[in-house]
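[audit] Reproducing an earlier prediction to check determinism. Same input, same settings, fresh worker. If the tokens differ from the archived copy the diff job will pick it up downstream; this log only records the rerun itself.
[audit] input (548 residues):
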Amino acid sequence: MTNRDIAQAFNELADLLELHDADDFRIRSYRQAYLALRKIERPLAELTDGEIQAIRGIGPAITRKIRELLQSGRLRALEELRAQTPPGVVEMLRIGGFGPKKVRLVWQQMGIADVSELWYACHENRLASAKGFGLKTQEALKNQLEYYLRTKDRLHYATAEKLADFVGAWLNGRLPGALISPTGEVRRGCPTVTHLDMLVGYDGDISPAIDGQLLLVEQVINDIYHLKIEGKTPMRLFHCRAEQFGARLFETTGSTAFVDALFAAFPGLRNGRLPTEEALFEACGLPLIPPERRESPEILRQVQAGPLPACITEGDLRGVLHVHTTWSDGLHSLRDMCLYARQLGYAYIGITDHSQSAFYANGLKPERVLAQMEEIDALNAELAPFRVLKGIESDILSDGSLDYEPALLERFDFVVASVHTQLNMSMQKATQRVLKAIENPYTTILGHPTGRLLLGRAGYPLDWDAVLQACAQNNVAVELNAHPHRLDIDWTLIPKALDYGVRISINPDAHSKEGIHDLRYGVLSARKGGLTAAYCFNADEAPLLKRR
């Protein structure tokens, strides 16, 4: 082990001890050992015990631990603490500026046990009012979290898209006249991205232009540049001549199965010199298939049988449903959220603050529900014809019931029913719990149906045939939660929902005005699944909200 490895082991040991609220003296000792050992130039393996103890701050006990690390590469005390700590909590300690005391607070007092849940808690403004935090601290933590997530092996689509736009603008400045486009999973709008891919059509050598401070070239294989953005985020850059740009864009955009299926049907087009994708599809006698739909060869069979139905667009959405305000854990007031939605051109907004069981999110007790309804009545009188709908995001309790008595549920215009707690369920338990909520006569929309957080947790399993059949029978819509860390229901389930005649509600789950713009991610995901405006719940000018 290197000196740095040994020093880091003591730093982690101190972090975990502080996380578990251990003795301050031990914590300080290991912190001092970390600071001292990382400055030692001579390898510790070459030093005698006496020489190690001569280092300031290193005593006999720490010397024994250093020798244990040198001999075995392991430290029993560290392994024991790791075993006592959820892996997600250990991972939180790697976030810059987020120390053990704050990690302990969110873990033990707020029940947050992984990085993805922590990010979402910041998004929902749950940390802004927590002891030791505040809005500025929460925002700083959120930024640190985004950086941390951006440097992991996979990226959320929203992060990958921003990086691709940034790199594309940078390349435009370095390669005047070049044809530049995101490609691969980013261009297909995949919820998470394994490879950040860009294509450059340019007649000349691009190496001198791209190997610099922003993009660091690691290797070049067959005109594919393997890079790192600012030395951190991996990226692949495909290079071709301008006359090949359309063909190469097609080849690098679609999934391997989709691309291979098309070239199997039209083998003469592979490695063509077509400048646009439109020219390639014309050569096939096919209409242009949108990039987001180029996942499965099945789409080719569908388009050969006849024109594809027009997919939903952002412009088709008439209302914004599932919105939080300062009444619970939102960042902006009810009035501000309404005015902003109206300013964006929507005809209605559905307010759905958290219900009473969500105490961690300042959920509304019945008397606060009634007070909020009075404010909504006043806003409706003022803002007509824009409409403010009285809703709630009701927790689906462990037994499948909703969070209020029927007399209060009756007063809402609509109810989004969501699971937020006790997520570790078998398929049978999860399905029964969700089915009971769907069958409740006051449920309008099943919210983020699996509870997943992309790159954070997979969500609970459901018997989707049973769930969708129940939604169809009870006239309940299924939410496509547009937040880029959820995108739940997954786009692959949309065709099955449509087969059952179930409508999809594309909802932002907005906790701020800016959160409404997340609808674009939901629309892109819905398009991947082939959702049309006719089957989008909030594409209606005035959706039928009440079930009875």
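[audit] rerun output stored. Observation attached for the diff report: The mean pLDDT is 92.
[audit] end
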